[in-house]
Amino acid sequence: MPLATNPGTAKALKDLIRPIVPSAILRARAEREFFSEKSWYAKHLGKFDSFAEANRYIQQKNIDARGYVLDHEAWLAERTKLSTHDYPPLFWIGKLIFQNNLRTVADFGGSAGVSYYAFKNYLAFPQDLAWTVCELPEAVAAGTRITKERQEHRLTFVEDARQIASSQVFYAAGVLHYLEQTPAQLLESIGAKPEYLVLNKLPLSQKESFVTIESGGNGYYPCRIQAAPSFISELRASGYEVVDRWRCLEHRMDVGLHPELSFPHYQGFVFTRSRA
Fold this sequence. Notes:
The protein is of the alpha/beta class. The protein contains 9 helices and 12 strands. The strands form 2 sheets. A 7-stranded mixed beta sheet has the order 4-3-2-5-6-12-10, sandwiched between helices. InterPro entries: Put_MTase_LIC12133. It comes from mine drainage metagenome.
């Protein structure tokens, strides 16, 4: 493999060069590479104290902070094939439906029903299952249209998160870090006390909580990186206990300008409501 394309060699060279190159030059280069990136895979830049500070930084760079833009129908067509990190949620959703006899699932930020259709390929969902996706208006419109075309009565879409507050299972994959609220704060704000939380693709730091900027190829937007101990302790304070945990090895966090905050994988969790 050529040296330039060897990730280990490239990192070693960067670590060697960083101490002897002026920080202003390193910053300018990192910013130029970040804001010129057009690929879909998310990249990250900077450390901020809040979403407001991150958005001000984007505006100062004369960058259009378009926010998160997604073609939901194309995403649905591409993502119904499971990745490795999807199998733990598949297992737990199946267990909760078939062994625990739970029948209401809230899918927060679930696009046009991607997880529902993907899991349906492996699980024979019961007819009385109610799977509700809470999403932005454009996703709700696309998802509702597709369910009508497919005559899929078990899947519905809502925009108001309070409409999923009574669900027995709260499921979210790769979306919660785009909210200013932490998961515990979100659940409290909508008055939700689900029996189980199935949370996947969480970028959790082992060091500290911070806000960074993400580039998804079609826009630049803040995202919240919570420290793992804080994430767990907040949910415990809300009455939940960890029952399972896994690594999402397909996703890593490389923070431009702050390599000390980078980490090698995202995480997934299942929490159950404490009976105490």
